[in-house]
Design goal:
mainly alpha; 11 helices
Length: 266
Protein backbone atom coordinates (compact mmCIF):
# COMPACT_ATOMS: atom_id res chain seq x y z
CA UNK A 1 0.00 0.00 0.00
CA UNK A 2 1.41 3.41 -0.97
CA UNK A 3 1.95 6.06 1.66
CA UNK A 4 -0.91 8.23 0.40
CA UNK A 5 -3.33 5.30 0.47
CA UNK A 6 -2.08 4.27 3.91
CA UNK A 7 -2.69 7.69 5.48
CA UNK A 8 -6.02 8.01 3.64
CA UNK A 9 -7.04 4.68 5.20
CA UNK A 10 -5.96 5.93 8.64
CA UNK A 11 -7.98 9.13 8.16
CA UNK A 12 -10.98 7.09 7.05
CA UNK A 13 -10.59 4.93 10.14
CA UNK A 14 -10.51 8.02 12.33
CA UNK A 15 -13.73 9.26 10.71
CA UNK A 16 -15.50 5.90 11.16
CA UNK A 17 -14.29 5.54 14.73
CA UNK A 18 -16.01 8.75 15.86
CA UNK A 19 -19.04 8.07 13.67
CA UNK A 20 -19.66 4.98 15.82
CA UNK A 21 -20.60 7.08 18.86
CA UNK A 22 -23.93 8.42 17.59
CA UNK A 23 -25.47 9.14 20.99
CA UNK A 24 -22.37 11.05 22.04
CA UNK A 25 -22.53 13.01 18.80
CA UNK A 26 -26.20 13.88 19.36
CA UNK A 27 -25.37 14.98 22.92
CA UNK A 28 -22.55 17.11 21.53
CA UNK A 29 -24.86 18.78 19.03
CA UNK A 30 -27.30 19.59 21.85
CA UNK A 31 -24.52 20.88 24.10
CA UNK A 32 -23.01 23.11 21.41
CA UNK A 33 -26.43 24.50 20.55
CA UNK A 34 -27.21 25.32 24.19
CA UNK A 35 -23.81 26.91 24.77
CA UNK A 36 -24.29 28.83 21.53
CA UNK A 37 -27.57 30.21 22.83
CA UNK A 38 -25.97 31.25 26.11
CA UNK A 39 -23.08 32.96 24.34
CA UNK A 40 -25.32 34.67 21.78
CA UNK A 41 -27.47 36.31 24.41
CA UNK A 42 -24.38 37.27 26.41
CA UNK A 43 -22.83 38.78 23.28
CA UNK A 44 -26.04 40.62 22.38
CA UNK A 45 -26.10 42.18 25.84
CA UNK A 46 -22.42 43.08 25.58
CA UNK A 47 -22.78 44.56 22.11
CA UNK A 48 -25.80 46.58 23.29
CA UNK A 49 -23.49 48.26 25.79
CA UNK A 50 -20.44 48.35 23.51
CA UNK A 51 -21.66 48.68 19.89
CA UNK A 52 -19.01 47.71 17.30
CA UNK A 53 -16.79 46.14 19.95
CA UNK A 54 -13.77 44.71 18.17
CA UNK A 55 -15.07 46.14 14.89
CA UNK A 56 -18.04 43.73 14.85
CA UNK A 57 -21.68 44.68 14.69
CA UNK A 58 -24.24 42.46 16.44
CA UNK A 59 -24.85 40.25 13.40
CA UNK A 60 -21.12 39.62 13.02
CA UNK A 61 -20.77 38.89 16.72
CA UNK A 62 -23.61 36.35 16.49
CA UNK A 63 -22.00 34.78 13.42
CA UNK A 64 -18.73 34.49 15.33
CA UNK A 65 -20.49 32.62 18.15
CA UNK A 66 -22.09 30.01 15.91
CA UNK A 67 -18.93 29.47 13.89
CA UNK A 68 -17.11 28.94 17.17
CA UNK A 69 -19.63 26.31 18.24
CA UNK A 70 -19.26 24.60 14.85
CA UNK A 71 -15.48 24.45 15.23
CA UNK A 72 -15.23 23.77 18.96
CA UNK A 73 -15.08 19.97 18.69
CA UNK A 74 -13.73 20.02 15.14
CA UNK A 75 -10.54 21.73 16.26
CA UNK A 76 -10.54 20.13 19.74
CA UNK A 77 -9.92 23.63 21.05
CA UNK A 78 -9.83 22.52 24.67
CA UNK A 79 -8.47 19.05 23.89
CA UNK A 80 -10.37 15.82 23.50
CA UNK A 81 -8.64 14.60 20.38
CA UNK A 82 -5.85 12.08 19.90
CA UNK A 83 -3.46 13.68 22.40
CA UNK A 84 -4.88 11.91 25.45
CA UNK A 85 -4.59 8.51 23.76
CA UNK A 86 -1.04 9.17 22.55
CA UNK A 87 0.07 10.33 26.01
CA UNK A 88 -1.37 7.15 27.50
CA UNK A 89 0.44 5.03 24.92
CA UNK A 90 3.67 6.83 25.80
CA UNK A 91 3.06 6.24 29.52
CA UNK A 92 2.38 2.52 29.09
CA UNK A 93 5.12 1.97 26.52
CA UNK A 94 2.65 1.01 23.79
CA UNK A 95 4.14 3.82 21.71
CA UNK A 96 6.93 1.34 20.93
CA UNK A 97 4.41 -0.50 18.74
CA UNK A 98 3.64 2.76 16.96
CA UNK A 99 7.32 3.37 16.33
CA UNK A 100 7.72 -0.09 14.78
CA UNK A 101 4.94 0.57 12.26
CA UNK A 102 6.06 1.15 8.68
CA UNK A 103 4.60 4.64 8.95
CA UNK A 104 5.69 7.97 10.34
CA UNK A 105 4.39 8.58 13.89
CA UNK A 106 3.56 12.25 13.28
CA UNK A 107 1.80 11.66 9.95
CA UNK A 108 -0.08 8.64 11.32
CA UNK A 109 -1.67 10.65 14.12
CA UNK A 110 -2.19 13.63 11.80
CA UNK A 111 -4.18 11.47 9.40
CA UNK A 112 -6.18 9.96 12.24
CA UNK A 113 -6.93 13.38 13.72
CA UNK A 114 -7.96 14.80 10.36
CA UNK A 115 -10.52 12.00 10.05
CA UNK A 116 -11.80 12.79 13.54
CA UNK A 117 -11.96 16.52 12.79
CA UNK A 118 -13.85 16.00 9.54
CA UNK A 119 -16.46 13.89 11.27
CA UNK A 120 -16.84 16.41 14.10
CA UNK A 121 -17.32 19.20 11.57
CA UNK A 122 -20.02 17.33 9.66
CA UNK A 123 -21.61 15.42 12.52
CA UNK A 124 -21.44 17.94 15.32
CA UNK A 125 -20.64 21.34 13.84
CA UNK A 126 -23.08 21.86 10.99
CA UNK A 127 -26.35 21.60 12.91
CA UNK A 128 -25.61 24.28 15.57
CA UNK A 129 -24.32 26.60 12.82
CA UNK A 130 -27.45 26.13 10.69
CA UNK A 131 -29.63 26.56 13.79
CA UNK A 132 -27.93 29.86 14.56
CA UNK A 133 -28.28 31.07 10.97
CA UNK A 134 -31.99 30.24 10.93
CA UNK A 135 -33.01 31.81 14.23
CA UNK A 136 -30.63 34.75 14.67
CA UNK A 137 -29.50 37.65 12.47
CA UNK A 138 -26.12 36.70 11.04
CA UNK A 139 -23.60 38.18 8.63
CA UNK A 140 -23.17 35.35 6.16
CA UNK A 141 -21.81 36.00 2.66
CA UNK A 142 -23.61 35.22 -0.59
CA UNK A 143 -20.39 34.67 -2.53
CA UNK A 144 -19.60 30.92 -2.89
CA UNK A 145 -15.90 31.80 -3.22
CA UNK A 146 -15.94 33.07 0.37
CA UNK A 147 -17.45 29.79 1.55
CA UNK A 148 -14.78 27.86 -0.34
CA UNK A 149 -12.13 30.08 1.28
CA UNK A 150 -13.70 29.32 4.66
CA UNK A 151 -13.33 25.58 4.05
CA UNK A 152 -9.66 26.02 3.16
CA UNK A 153 -9.14 28.13 6.27
CA UNK A 154 -10.82 25.48 8.43
CA UNK A 155 -8.62 22.78 6.90
CA UNK A 156 -5.50 24.78 7.75
CA UNK A 157 -6.89 25.41 11.25
CA UNK A 158 -7.20 21.63 11.69
CA UNK A 159 -3.49 21.21 10.94
CA UNK A 160 -2.49 24.03 13.30
CA UNK A 161 -4.65 22.54 16.05
CA UNK A 162 -3.02 19.16 15.49
CA UNK A 163 0.46 20.73 15.63
CA UNK A 164 -0.26 22.30 19.02
CA UNK A 165 -1.74 19.13 20.50
CA UNK A 166 1.00 16.88 19.08
CA UNK A 167 3.58 18.92 20.99
CA UNK A 168 1.51 18.63 24.16
CA UNK A 169 1.22 14.86 23.66
CA UNK A 170 4.98 14.51 23.20
CA UNK A 171 5.52 16.07 26.62
CA UNK A 172 4.47 12.64 27.89
CA UNK A 173 7.96 11.40 27.08
CA UNK A 174 9.29 13.62 29.87
CA UNK A 175 6.31 13.80 32.26
CA UNK A 176 5.09 10.95 34.44
CA UNK A 177 1.57 12.41 34.43
CA UNK A 178 0.28 14.48 31.53
CA UNK A 179 -2.79 15.79 33.36
CA UNK A 180 -1.22 19.19 33.96
CA UNK A 181 -0.16 19.58 30.33
CA UNK A 182 -3.68 18.73 29.16
CA UNK A 183 -5.17 21.29 31.55
CA UNK A 184 -2.79 23.95 30.23
CA UNK A 185 -3.87 22.95 26.71
CA UNK A 186 -7.52 23.43 27.69
CA UNK A 187 -7.05 26.84 29.29
CA UNK A 188 -4.78 28.26 26.60
CA UNK A 189 -7.00 26.87 23.86
CA UNK A 190 -10.18 28.48 25.15
CA UNK A 191 -8.53 31.82 26.00
CA UNK A 192 -6.10 32.39 23.13
CA UNK A 193 -8.29 30.98 20.36
CA UNK A 194 -10.98 33.58 21.03
CA UNK A 195 -13.58 31.00 21.98
CA UNK A 196 -14.68 33.10 24.95
CA UNK A 197 -14.36 36.51 23.22
CA UNK A 198 -13.11 37.51 19.75
CA UNK A 199 -9.41 38.33 19.88
CA UNK A 200 -9.97 41.69 18.21
CA UNK A 201 -12.12 42.66 21.21
CA UNK A 202 -9.23 42.14 23.65
CA UNK A 203 -7.75 45.30 25.18
CA UNK A 204 -4.51 46.57 23.69
CA UNK A 205 -1.67 45.67 23.58
CA UNK A 206 -2.87 42.18 24.56
CA UNK A 207 -5.15 42.08 21.51
CA UNK A 208 -2.29 42.65 19.07
CA UNK A 209 -0.17 40.04 20.86
CA UNK A 210 -2.74 37.23 20.88
CA UNK A 211 -3.54 37.68 17.20
CA UNK A 212 0.08 36.74 16.42
CA UNK A 213 -0.07 33.44 18.34
CA UNK A 214 -0.91 30.11 16.68
CA UNK A 215 -4.26 29.83 18.48
CA UNK A 216 -5.39 32.83 16.40
CA UNK A 217 -5.32 30.51 13.38
CA UNK A 218 -8.00 28.26 14.91
CA UNK A 219 -11.15 30.38 15.17
CA UNK A 220 -10.29 34.04 14.59
CA UNK A 221 -8.86 33.53 11.11
CA UNK A 222 -11.75 31.41 9.75
CA UNK A 223 -14.21 33.92 11.26
CA UNK A 224 -12.43 36.86 9.66
CA UNK A 225 -12.37 35.04 6.32
CA UNK A 226 -16.09 34.28 6.55
CA UNK A 227 -16.97 37.88 7.38
CA UNK A 228 -14.59 39.40 4.86
CA UNK A 229 -12.40 41.13 7.45
CA UNK A 230 -9.19 39.66 6.07
CA UNK A 231 -8.04 38.71 2.58
CA UNK A 232 -8.22 34.90 2.26
CA UNK A 233 -4.68 34.60 0.90
CA UNK A 234 -3.34 36.57 3.85
CA UNK A 235 -5.20 34.31 6.28
CA UNK A 236 -3.97 31.19 4.46
CA UNK A 237 -0.37 32.42 4.65
CA UNK A 238 -0.67 33.07 8.39
CA UNK A 239 -2.23 29.69 9.09
CA UNK A 240 0.08 27.74 6.77
CA UNK A 241 3.09 29.47 8.33
CA UNK A 242 2.11 28.36 11.82
CA UNK A 243 1.27 24.87 10.54
CA UNK A 244 4.75 24.49 9.05
CA UNK A 245 6.44 25.84 12.19
CA UNK A 246 4.47 23.61 14.55
CA UNK A 247 4.94 20.49 12.44
CA UNK A 248 8.67 21.19 12.13
CA UNK A 249 9.04 21.70 15.88
CA UNK A 250 6.95 18.58 16.45
CA UNK A 251 9.25 16.63 14.13
CA UNK A 252 12.31 17.83 16.04
CA UNK A 253 10.79 17.05 19.46
CA UNK A 254 9.65 13.64 18.22
CA UNK A 255 13.19 12.85 17.14
CA UNK A 256 14.62 13.97 20.47
CA UNK A 257 12.00 11.98 22.38
CA UNK A 258 12.22 8.71 20.48
CA UNK A 259 16.00 8.62 20.76
CA UNK A 260 15.62 8.24 24.52
CA UNK A 261 12.80 5.66 24.50
CA UNK A 262 13.51 2.60 26.61
CA UNK A 263 10.70 0.06 27.02
CA UNK A 264 11.04 -2.54 29.80
CA UNK A 265 14.81 -2.29 29.66
CA UNK A 266 14.92 -2.96 25.91
Amino acid sequence: MGSARLYAAVASGGFRRYATYRVATAAGVFTNTVFGLILVYAYLALWDERPHLGGYDQAQAVTYVWLGQALFATLAIQGGGFETELMERIRTGEVAVDLYRPADLQLWWLASDMGRALFQLLGRGVIPFVFGALFFPTALPDDPVIWLALLVSILLAMVVSYGIRFLVALSGFWLLDGTGALQVLMVTGVFFSGMALPLNAFPQPLGDLVTLLPWSALLQMPADVLMGRVAPLSAFAFQAGWAVVLLAVGRWVQGAATRRVVVQGG
